[in-house]
């Protein structure tokens, strides 16, 4: 399934300048290019605050009214509801693009700053990520690094088992669009450890290194096309995105990518980010 193009358009001149500055290939999907270049043609509207108020638990999601806490309680572990409903993901993972729920407001830049400064709101966003990870058969091990593991506490054929969750993900291609949105949302809110960690863990599951677990997993042609054509590009850091791309090519060629290698990379990268942030603060 091909992700929808965003309603926000990017002018040729502004996009071209960003592509040239960062050596981004123009062949990438238009919505991915807009995301990577921070939507250079978007027009901010400071009067729009629906996402800010929702994540502060001050206003409900629409069209089925529920505050953020209420919606998360309703969806957590509710596999059937998570699968069949199409009106919640735009609220839980707002991005600067219009989704299929026309009552959900696209994200505004000023909302990003306000929410990032609100620890309770950011905790809710991380909980939304945990809910969807569980829906896809995964578990967040360490929020600091983004490290993931299989949600293997429930054996198959139970609906909550990771094997059933993987099968559901591969069977219902609209989830591929959801993953793209989740990756973009995490990047927008500065949770930059999570997109590469998620992508690299999926690559581990797809590699022959997952054979002892019963893998490889998540290798359906449609999911692999979404990974290679969309997901692996939704990382704003150029170096991290290139590493994911390169590792993906190696896995597609039959190479190994072990769980330990994945853990080491996400932990080392988290330490590097912390040093970079510390250096930036000292330079202010």
UniProtKB/TrEMBL annotation:
- UniProt entry keywords in alphabetical sequence: Receptor
All residue ranges annotated as the Opioid growth factor receptor (OGFr) conserved domain in the record: 46-243
Q: Name one GO molecular function term.
A: opioid growth factor receptor activity
Q: Which Pfam families match?
A: OGFr_N
Q: Does the keyword Ion transport apply?
A: no
Specify whether RNA-binding is a keyword of the entry: no
Q: An example Gene Ontology cellular component term from the record?
A: membrane
Q: Output the superkingdom of the source species.
A: Eukaryota
Q: List the residue ranges of the region (Disordered).
A: 1-20
Return the similarity comment: Belongs to the opioid growth factor receptor family.
Q: What is this protein called?
A: Opioid growth factor receptor conserved region-domain-containing protein
């Amino acid at each position: 399934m091909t992700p929808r193009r965003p309603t926000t358009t990017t002018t040729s001149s502004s996009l071209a300048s960003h592509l040239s500055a960062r050596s981004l290939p123009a062949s990438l999907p238009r919505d991915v290019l807009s995301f990577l270049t921070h939507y250079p043609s978007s027009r901010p509207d400071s009067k729009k605050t629906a996402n800010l108020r929702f994540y502060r638990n001050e206003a409900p999601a629409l069209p089925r009214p529920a505050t953020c806490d209420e919606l998360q309680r309703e969806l957590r572990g509710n596999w059937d509801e998570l699968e069949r409903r199409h009106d919640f993901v735009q609220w839980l993972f707002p991005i600067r693009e219009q989704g299929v729920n026309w009552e959900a407001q696209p994200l505004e830049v000023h909302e990003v700053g306000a929410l990032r400064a609100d620890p309770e709101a950011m905790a809710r966003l991380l909980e939304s990520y945990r809910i969807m990870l569980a829906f896809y058969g995964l578990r967040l091990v360490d929020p600091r690094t983004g490290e993931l593991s299989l949600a293997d506490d429930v054996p198959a054929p139970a609906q909550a088992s990771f094997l059933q969750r993987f099968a559901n993900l591969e069977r219902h291609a609209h989830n591929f669009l959801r993953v793209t949105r989740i990756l973009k949302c995490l990047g927008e809110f500065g949770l930059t450890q999570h997109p590469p960690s998620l992508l690299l863990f999926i690559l581990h599951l797809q590699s022959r290194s997952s054979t002892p677990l019963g893998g490889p997993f998540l290798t359906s042609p449609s999911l692999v096309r979404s990974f290679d054509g969309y997901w692996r590009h939704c990382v704003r850091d150029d170096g991290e995105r290139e590493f994911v791309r390169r590792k993906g090519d190696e896995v597609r060629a039959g190479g190994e990518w072990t769980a330990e290698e994945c853990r080491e990379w996400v932990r080392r990268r988290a330490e590097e980010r912390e040093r970079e942030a510390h250096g930036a603060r000292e330079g202010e």
